[in-house]
Design a protein that fits this description.
2 copies of one chain form a homodimer. Chain A is α+β, with helices and mostly antiparallel strands. Chain A is about 30% helix and about 30% strand. Chain A has a 6-stranded antiparallel beta sheet. Chain A has a 4-stranded antiparallel beta sheet with strand order 1-2-3-6, covered by helices on one side. In chain A, strands 4-5 form a two-stranded antiparallel sheet. In chain A, helix 6 runs antiparallel to helix 7. The longest helix of chain A has 19 residues. Chain A is globular. Chains A and B meet through strand 1, strand 2, strand 3, helix 2 and strand 4 of A and strand 1, strand 2, strand 3, helix 2 and strand 4 of B.
């Protein structure tokens, strides 16, 4: 095979990675977030072990090596060494990574912030506008310049349409941790705070067609889904989260998530509900917005 | 080495395991609980992937094979195939396992139920009343017949008073997973569904004095607390949960938890909010109330 063989060998670009710092890790979730350098560029790499799949269980049990750790009565524990193709680690690389990426993945204590409608106008909105976070990657998806092959469903309507695709966190190997995102086609809606009764057709369209598409593609009925928005969101282009009920997806806690069904009901009875209501959400210690709330004496 | 070599080879006893049923699994925690047979005996095996260790990270990154999954802008994802000794799976075997072991590890699927105000009157309320779940243990606490030494704070007022004490789930060893319950002195309020503007003084009293008591006793400010009610609750005598923000307490998900601050605001703007609103909550497959919703054709 000569040179050909060399070309076809997958090159491990991470073998040149040099670690600066572990940003965070979770023994429960079996993941780790690491800041370092990759070929002289700043990079963040995220490793997360993959869920154990029922369909490979027989092969996993028969094809592995077992090392006994301890035995006590009817209980025994082992270390199981599996064939590597049955035991992959999901790896995400952000490169070149900015200071913001590093901060995003750095573990931080959070504080609950109380944001009135006036606080939003005087503190949060100016902060968002000044930051002008790039959502170019969102536009790439909406314009089919990236991830077009990952789209699960699309309604192309510019007013009520959206693109539904798997979240990066989901490896799509099993529905147990199903996680999809609906990104809306309209580009002027930043978050929950912008929603009024004029957006009811959009929200209802996402609710109905998103659930239908998930039933079609994954055979998962609406009664097994948790459908919600984040406030604050991690990017200011309206999007809706679809996760499997029973899967404790990060960010599905009551302090950050708002059920789409509740949002629709609340706007139906008061178009200005999310413009006027005090909203509560956690902000990490290093979040610039938290400093703004502190400066304003709101914390 | 002859026979000796054979003896020293680790025998994989699990290669003879035949699976009857996956009892439960967690995509988030990367574990699976399986019931089956091992050499003609009932057995439960538990597999759980191990946390990613910082001290083996360099070896893991350099010694693995990477398969590119996708690339978009500065983000790329890979499947990483690691040397098996760096990526073990913790394996626990219970053998022979009894019926109790099997039940213990059996997960119940939940379904999201949609309960209108009318559903509450015609399905849920009659079910609660017929069951007449005993809350004697709650009365014992309120009357100091039990757990009196565990009380962290009490306001004895019969209208707006409550008892604050640690939840059983919290071992009180550290505040990281702080979990307290405020149980109200009035006895006629079953749940969120019963709350109207007449209960605002009670709710505000719990909100203010509960947070004060936790600051006093545990030195934890209100901005580190998640204060909420469950619907459905696990017992029908009104109580409020106080947990540490950042601790993912069971039941703090958006599908079951309602922030006390939101409840107060909603009742302030509409006294009948929780009497009339459609509420969503998960019910386990073996929950009697789920059968009632099915019988009524509401699922």
């Amino acid at each position: 095979r000569g040179l050909g063989a060399k070309d076809s060998e997958p090159k491990n670009i991470l073998s040149g990675f040099s670690t600066s710092k572990v940003l965070s890790d979770s023994a429960r979730e079996k993941n780790i977030f690491v800041h370092g350098k990759l070929a002289d560029q700043e990079a963040v790499i995220i490793l997360e072990k993959t869920p154990i799949r029922e369909d490979t269980l027989a092969e996993l049990l028969s094809g592995s090596t077992l090392k006994l750790e301890l035995k006590n009565d009817i209980y025994s524990t082992y270390r199981l060494q599996a064939p590597s193709h049955l035991n992959e680690i999901k790896t995400t690389v952000v490169c070149p990574a900015t200071e913001k990426h590093v901060k995003k993945y750095q573990r931080q204590e959070s504080s609950l912030v109380e944001e009135t409608g006036e606080d939003y106008q005087s503190i949060t909105l100016p902060y968002i506008q000044k930051q002008s976070f790039s959502v170019q990657w969102v536009f790439n998806i909406l314009e089919k310049k990236a991830e077009a092959d990952r789209i699960v469903y699309e309604d192309p309507d510019p007013k009520v349409g959206f693109v539904l695709l798997p979240d990066f966190k989901w490896d799509q190997k099993q529905v147990d941790d199903l996680y999809l995102i609906a990104i809306v086609h309209p580009r002027e809606i930043k978050s929950l705070r912008d929603l009024t009764s004029e957006h009811l057709p959009l929200l209802q369209n996402i609710f109905v067609k998103g659930k239908e598409a998930i039933l079609q593609r994954y055979n998962l009925p609406a009664s097994k889904l948790r459908v919600y928005l984040h406030y604050q969101p991690s990017y200011y282009h309206l999007h809706v989260h679809f996760t499997k009920l029973g899967y404790e997806a990060p960010g599905c806690g009551v302090e950050r998530a708002h059920l789409l069904a509740d949002v629709i009901q609340n706007i139906q009875s008061d178009s200005q509900y999310y413009k006027t209501r005090t909203l509560y959400f956690p902000l990490r210690a290093d979040d610039g917005l938290l400093s703004k709330f502190k400066e304003a004496g709101r914390l």
